[in-house]
Amino acid sequence: MDLFNPGFWLFVAAIAGTYAIMALGLYVQFSLAGLPNFGHVAFMAVAAYAMAILVVRAAAPLSFAVIGGIAAAVVLAFIVGIPTVRLRADYLAIATVAASEVVRYLAMNLTDLTGGPLGSIGLLGPGQVAMYNTSWLRFVDGLAHAASSLTGTNVSRDAVVAPLMWLVAVIAIAALASLERSPWGRVMRAIREDEVAATAAGKNVFAFRMQALVLGGVLGAIAGMLLALQIGVFSPDDYEPTLTFYAYLILILGGSNRIWAIPLGAGLFSLLYSGTRFLNFFPLSLIDSGARAFLRLFLVGFLLVLFMALRPQGILGNRRELLLDK
Amino acid sequence: MLEIEDLRRWFGGVAAVDGVSFAVAEGSMTALIGPNGAGKTTVFNLISGFLKPQGGRIRFTGRRIDALRADVIARAGLVRTFQTPRVLTRMSVLDNMLLAGRDQPGEGFAMRWIAPRRVARREQAVRCRAAELLALLRLDHLAADYAGTLSGGQRKLLELGRALMTEPRMILLDEPMAGIAPVLAAQLLQHTRMLRAEQGITVFLIEHDMEMVMAVSDRVIVMDEGRVIAAGTPDAVQRNERVIEAYLGRTSAEPAA
Question: Which residues lie closer than 8 Å to B154 by C-beta, 6 or more apart?
Answer without folding.
Answer: B139, B142, B184
